[in-house]
């Protein structure tokens, strides 16, 4: 029984990261209707920034994370302005998807070029939370991760539900043309969406880098696949769905590794099967909006 | 009293892609009046409103609002300058609540009167008040039409454009709607340009009428004389 509980907690730990990346995916999907394939690699770049400030510049880890968050926020906005907007609204929405795929490769290569010295293998990210157990075998880092996710959710909820900016963001997600008709600059809202997504990605990547024994430039690749599964499970347009989906995928993954020996080494089958099942059974995901229209 | 009309279109041409719908349209709406555009399906009524709001891609000619050219401005800039459109098919934010829809209408405002205006339009449209927290898309067509109009009014526009407000509504609801529109025009002095197929109802609240046929104005004049003109009635109004 203790083993089972341990694995569930382990799943929550990694699930927080899937949930955060899925949140970032959802934020961009809601306003553009497109998946940002570069989300993981952008988070990787942010993670390197956190690491660079924390390790190379001796900034306390939380300070480094804050700096990385702010820089990523600005970077996300700039990417929308410079790389995405010119191809947007052109002939096909696929153009944006192609650009994000290009960024997937380019950002990864750029991050290696800038941050990894030749011959260097894994980088060490300082711990964000003290090691050891809090009580009942619950690791302090798992509690810390969960708190980070809760804070992300509360801040996002307040932003989206309680501010005028959030109302405009929801308006653009719901009906872009009507948004313009009420005077919202939809382009700026897309920019805010990208900025928020990049900021959340910075947190997710930095948390992920503290798990295990060091990280390298492949840190986010597997995580992105699991996060796609999480977003699909929750419904691509639902922030709540992203969080629930992330935790479910994390726990499912963790339990599979423990109990299904047949999948040893090919755990990536789990998110793949999840995506397939969700798309077949509930194409809108658990919390996705089904369009209700009365005329 | 100023002689500049609030809205003036001069030789406006425009359409969708390779198809030109408007062929050099001239049109005026004076401050405080209700003008109505009548015409058959495909005449270019909706396209005219879209040209005014800057939603149409290629518009040639000039659109003046309060004397300044707005032809090249973006849709959101035109909205901010005081023109509100109630689109055909209503264009509500379907998955947002009625309350959020109305607050989005007031997006461009910075004054303190937003809450008071909310209460006021809830008073005018009590059905909306009962459904404040309901998703807009789940309401009936008539309720959504009320919502779209109330949302436009929340921006405190100087010019209200209405695209087929009667579309899909039961006759009694349509009649009620036009009575309310006429009342808002009388009490607020709000200038309106209405596109409508239901000619008799529209002309009843209008000061001025235009008849549109394949992208051209083919008849215009005071609403009363337009409604009385035998030839216009037979050829274009169908009553």
List the helices and strands and how they pair.
The complex is a heterodimer of chains A (295) and B (239).
Chain A: H1 2-32, H2 39-56, H3 61-84, H4 94-115, E1 133-135, E2 138-139, H5 140-162, H6 164-174, H7 176-181, H8 186-210, H9 219-234, H10 239-259, H11 269-281
Antiparallel strand pairs in A: 1-2
Chain B: E1 7-16, E2 19-29, E3 34-38, H1 45-53, E4 58-65, E5 68-69, H2 75-80, E6 83-86, H3 98-105, H4 114-124, H5 126-130, H6 141-154, E7 159-163, H7 171-188, E8 191-195, H8 199-205, E9 208-213, E10 216-222, H9 223-228, H10 230-237
Separation, N- and C-terminal Cα atoms of chain B: 37 Å
Oligomer: heterodimer
Shape assignment of chain A = globular
Order of strands in the sheet with the most strands of chain A? 1-2
Largest sheet of chain A: 2 strands, antiparallel
Number of DSSP helical runs of chain B? 10
Rounded average pLDDT of chain A: 88
The SSE string of chain A, one letter per element, is HHHHEEHHHHHHH
Helix content of chain A: over 70%
- Tell me the major beta sheet of chain B: 6 strands, mixed
> Hey, roughly how much beta strand do the residues of chain B contain?
25-35%
DSSP summary: helix tally of chain A: 11
